[in-house]
Amino acid sequence: MLVSKNRGTSLLRSSEKSSLLRFLALYFILVTMILSLLGIFYYQSQEKLMFSNQRVILSEYANQQVQALKHLHNNFPNHVTTYPRSDKYRSAIYDIEAKKIFSLLKYGDSEDIRFDKEIYRVGNTLHFLKTLDDYYLGTKYLFIEVDEDKTWYKETMSSILAFGTLTLIVLIIFGLFFVSIFLRPMRNSIMLLDNFIKDTTHELNTPISAILANVEMMDISSMSEKNKKRLSRINIAAKTVSHLYQDLTYLTLSHNRESKDEWIDMKKLIEDRVEYFAILASAKRITFKLDLKESAIFIDGVKIARVLDNLISNAIKYNKRNGKIYITLRKNYLQIKDTGIGIKSKKVQDIFERYTRFNTSEGGFGIGLNIVKSIIDEYKLQISVESVVDVGTTIRIDFTKGTLDG
Amino acid sequence: MVKKIILLGVVCSIVLGADEPKNIYEKNCIPCHRYTPASLDKLFMIYLKTYSGELSVKGAIKAFLKNPTEKDSLMNNTFIKNFSVKNKTALTDEELEEAIDIYWELYDVRKKLK
After folding, report:
1. What is the mean pLDDT for each group of 10 consecutive residues in chain B (114 residues)?
2. Which end of chain B is more exposed for a tag (fewer CB within 10 A), N or C?
3. How many contacts does A have with B, using Cβ atoms within 8 A?
4. Are residues A145 and A107 in contact, defined by beta-carbon separation less than 8 angstroms?
5. How far is CA A85 from the centre of its chain?
C-alpha cells in the first residue's frame, strides 16, 4: 500500500505538475506583493514618525537660530558681522525673493533647496524650513540642516525583513497545505487506478504464463491448418495480454526495484524482440525491415526491453494492414519508423502522458509510452518523435555518451 | 616756505575733496541724514527687516521717497512727532533709482556677512 501511495503521489501528469507549479508561483507572487505593500506602508509610517520626531528637534534649532539672527540684526554691521553657527546643525538664510543671503549647508545648491516643504531629505541630511515673520537681515526663509540619523532606517528594514520572511514562510506552508487539500481528490483517483491495475496484474500472471507455456509445448506437426491458425490466434492474444502484463508489472512493481545496469547488445535484443512480435505483426501482414549495425549500451536489460517492446508494439498496433516497420540501429541511435495512421502535430507532445492513447479505437491503457519516457529520462537518453497523419510515425532514441560502448 | 605752501595745498585739497559729494546718493541723501537720528545704516536694517528682498526694499524706499506719508513711514511715532515726515523728493525716477542702488550696494548684508 505504501508503494502504491508513493507512486500515486509521484506520478502526477506533467500538465498537473505545471498547473500546480503555476498555482504555487501565482500564490507566491501574490503573497510577496501583499507583503511588499505592507512593508512599504510600514516603512512610510516609520518614516513619518521619524520626520515628526525630527521636526520637534529641528524646530527648536530654528528658534535658536532666529534668536541669534535677531541679535546679529540689531548689532549689524557696526558691532557684529559674523553669521551665527552651531555644532548641532548647519543653516542658511534666504530672502523673500528666494535669493540666498548666507548659507552653511552641505546640500545648499538651488536644486537641493525646497521652499514648499517644511521637512525633507536631501542626500544623507534632513532639511527643515522655517518661515520668519520679522525678516532679520532680510531673512524670510531659514533652513536648518542636520545629518540624518539612520538608526530608524536600520531598525525598520530589519523588522520588515524579519517579519516579512517569517510571514512568507508561514503563508507558503499554508499554501502547500491548501494545495495538498486541493490535490487530494486527484491523487485519490490516480491511486485508485494504480491500485486497480496492481490488483488486476497479480491475477493475470498465472493464467497467461500457463497459456503461453502450453502453446509453446503443443505439437503443431499433427495439427490441421485450421487448428494451426486457431493456435496462432491464441498465441497472439496471449502475447498481447503478456505484453500488457509486462507493462503493468513494470509500472506497479518493477519500476521501484534497483536498476541492474549491464552492457546490452542492442542488435541481438532487437532481433529477439522482433522475433517475439513477429506473430503479432503477421496477423496484420506487417513486415519488419531491419537495418541493424552493432551497438551496445550500458543499461538495465529489463528496462531497455520495455522500451523496445512498447515502441515495436505501438508500431504494430497503429500500423496499417500490409504496413512496414523500419528499424534502424546505429552505434549512437535507434530509430523505429512505421507506416501507420500518424499523430496530429498538436498531440505529439502529449503522447508520453500517462493514460494517453493515440486513438481510442485501439485497445490499451495508454501507459506504454509513459513507461518509455520514464526510462529514457532515467538514463538521460534523448527521444524525438516525428509524425505525419496517414503517413506514419518515426521515433528516434539517441544514446548519450554515458550509455555508449566506448 | 615753498614746502609749507605745498603741504597746505595738499591738506586743503584732501579736506575739500573729502567733503565734495561724489555721486547722487551722497549729494542727496547723506547731507540730511547726517543731522537726524535716523542714520542711513539703521534705516537700511529697518527696511530690510520689513521688506526682506532687494526688489521689495528698493521698491518700498522709492515709493516712500516719491510720496512720503506718516502711514508708510517705518519710523516710530516719537520720531515722526519730533522730526515730522520728510518732504517729497525732487529727484527724477532714474536719479532716485540710481541713488537707491548705490544705497543698497553700500549696506548689502551679503557682502558683509562672514
Report:
1. 45 46 85 82 93 94 92 86 85 93 93 90
2. N
3. 57
4. yes
5. 63
